[in-house]
Amino acid sequence: MPVISAPHAFNESQLYVDLRSILGHSLYLKCEGFNFAGSIKLKAANEMVESAEREGVLKPDSILVESSSGNLGVALSTIAASKGYQFLCVTDSRCNLSTRLLMEALGSEVHVISELDANAGFLGARIDYVRALCASDDRYVWLSQYTNPGNWKAHYRTTAPEIASYFPGLDVLFVGAGTTGTLMGCARYFRTWHRPVRIVAVDSVGSVAFGGTPGRRMIPGLGMSMRPPLLDESFVDEVIRVEEADTIRTCHRLARRGFVFGGSTGTVVSGAMDWLGRQDAPGITAVAIAPDLGERYLDTIYQTNWLQDLYGENILDPEQVAVGQSGAGPAPDPPEPPDTPPRRRSR
Ligand SMILES: Cc1ncc(COP(=O)(O)O)c(C=O)c1O
């Protein structure tokens, strides 16, 4: 029975959903939304705050400031409230209302940018605002999730070994890419420990994280309007891009089977299902990471008017959001948790 006295001291790390009976391919979805910040970003926030404390950058009168589309902002709000720091989150008009209200409930200040930077989109405008704040007052401390190595190290230390210990025979790992902290931490872990795991990055169409043409993106979390400074593509085996309409349909398919996940989970699962559908390898062991749950998206991804205004009347056409048995047989038995730390395997 876990008993805690700080919100960041608890993080469910052992929960997977097997999607075979819902979507037709065996895919184990690692659920990262069960903690007091409600998302995987608690791990990165914790690591970055602790290393700033160790390095003496954070002092009792410091004001934390960060650019976030929402989840890191909630995670930093949670930690700041627990540790007694002030926190200012710089977000933009795509941030969900409930996410903004949650940060305010935790005692944070939220600044919403509504003007796009002509060249660098919302992200460029958010970063400019943070830079100007830091230049105006040296009490501001910007952890900078886009460049802070603590962002990927958090996943190297936690997410990746958690997966490796349950899936010693893992073949492929699907990871959504935003700042690429999760992607780089996991990819570096499997490469360092010589595990022959194919690392597939999942991005949204319209993101330029891995190159390509910029386009409209309305679902926060995944995708970037610049190349992520943390990204080292030599660790990534493959990149797949998913249309937001497919993200939304996948979210609704899962919701109609009782699993209400956030938008980026829809993106990762949609990309993974396409990828698995193209393989001729029935016994493949595949894991995908679900960064958060769906309650923060009730007024967007799960709201018909919002969907139809942005994606057209037919976005939730029943044929496109088909529910029901996919014809796949029962899932293979999940792997037994090992008693020992992950074994090393040569490539
Ligand atoms: C819901 C959600 N999914 C995915 C990501 C991407 O994670 P990362 O920044 O580690 O690439 C984020 C990042 O904020 C997120 O909030």
TrEMBL record:
Query: InterPro entries from the entry?
Result: Cys_Synth/Cystath_Beta-Synth, SbnA, TrpB-like_PALP, TrpB-like_PALP_sf
Sorted alphabetically, which Pfam families does this protein's record hold?
A: PALP (PF00291)
Q: Which UniProt keywords apply?
A: Pyridoxal phosphate, Transferase
Positions of the UniProt region annotated as Disordered:
319-347
Q: Which GO terms describe its molecular function?
A: transferase activity
Is S-adenosyl-L-methionine one of the keywords UniProt gives this record? no
Q: Which residues form the Tryptophan synthase beta chain-like PALP domain?
A: 21-289
What superkingdom heads the lineage? Answer: Bacteria
UniProt biased composition (Pro residues): 331-340
Please give the cofactor(s) recorded in the UniProt entry for this protein. pyridoxal 5'-phosphate
Specify the protein name.
2,3-diaminopropionate biosynthesis protein SbnA
Annotated organism of origin: Streptomyces fagopyri
